[in-house]
Structures are given as structure tokens and as C-alpha cells.
């Protein structure tokens, strides 16, 4: 009699598990989850949206009356420029990054973005760029 051996079973490589998460604030600051990073971008964008709204409110208060002397003409020009800069670079661009980090992996069916640690590093650079 001959012995028939079973063929070896091929195992697919396992997906690497996600790193263990911490609790509290460290679960947000050290995360590699694309949804949490997108949410953090959205929170920062909302903060600067409020600041841009305050700048717009000061501009509108100055323009509410003819010959109003609420703020000086130089400060008005600076405020007008800062309002535009705030709304474009500190609101619209981080908000687009928030939507991209949140939605693109979900749309393509991926588990996560390609380099989640890099996304967190870029989010950290956002704060240094904001204060330049």
C-alpha cells in the first residue's frame, strides 16, 4: 500500500495588528487612526474659523458707520489681510486635509492610509506653520 500525503496548506500573510492605543489625551495625540487624525484637523480648522469670524466681525463693525473710528486705518488694512489669510490657509486647507484623511480611505475601501505616522507628523507641523 502506498501512503498519500496531504499537500501543505498555504497560509496567507497576516495583517499586522494595529498598535495598542492609550487612553485619554494620549490616545488622540499618538494615534495612527485616519479618522482621529482627520477629526483633529477639523477641530483645528474650526478654531481658526472662529478666529476668522472674529476678524470679520471687527471689519464689519468698522464698516457699520460712515467715518467710524473704532480701529485705525492701518489696523483695518492689517485685519483685512489677516482675515483673508486666516480663512484660506488656516481654515480651508486644514479642513480639506480633514476631509481627505476621513473620506479617501473609506471611499477606496482601505483599512487605513498608506503612512498614518506620516499623517500624524504633518499634523504636528501644522502648529509650527500656524505661528510663522
Describe this protein's structure.
With 132 residues, this protein is an all-alpha fold. It has one domain. 64% of the residues lie in helices and 0% in strands. The chain has four helices and no strands. It has helices spanning 25-29, 34-62, 73-108, 116-130. Helix 2 (34-62) packs antiparallel against helix 3 and helix 2 (34-62) packs parallel to helix 4. The longest helix is centred in the last third of the chain and has 36 residues, at 73-108. The radius of gyration is 25 Å and the shape is rod-shaped. The model has no long low-confidence stretch (mean pLDDT 86).
- Cα-to-Cα separation, first versus last residue: 83 Å
State the helicity in percent bands.
55-70%
Mean pLDDT metric: 86
The Rg value, from CA coordinates, equals 25 Å
- Our count of helices gives 4
- Oligomerization state: single chain
Task: Outline the secondary-structure elements.
Layout: H1 25-29, H2 34-62, H3 73-108, H4 116-130
Helix pairs in contact: 2-3, 2-4
In short:
It is built from four helices and no strands. The chain has 132 residues and is an all-alpha fold.
Notable features of this structure?
4 helices; 132 residues; mainly alpha; rod-shaped
